[in-house]
Amino acid sequence: MRETVGSLAEIVGGRVVGDPSHEIRGIAPLESAESHQISFLANPKYRRFLADTGAGSVMVSSREFCRPGKPDIV
Q: How many other C-beta atoms can be found within 10 angstroms of the C-beta atom of residue 50?
């Protein structure tokens, strides 16, 4: 899999906050994701992992969860 954050946002009907050209090559949980992987935050109990995740992008339900300087999908 090789997609940009922008193309993934388009597929899921989301909006990118940040650079849509960042390349994603896989999926991983928040706590173990790396810069070339995407993750998601669906359950508030996992919010504690958001600040420290290495994920290149995170799919979130609200802009309030977006990380500064990272291309997240709302």
A: 17
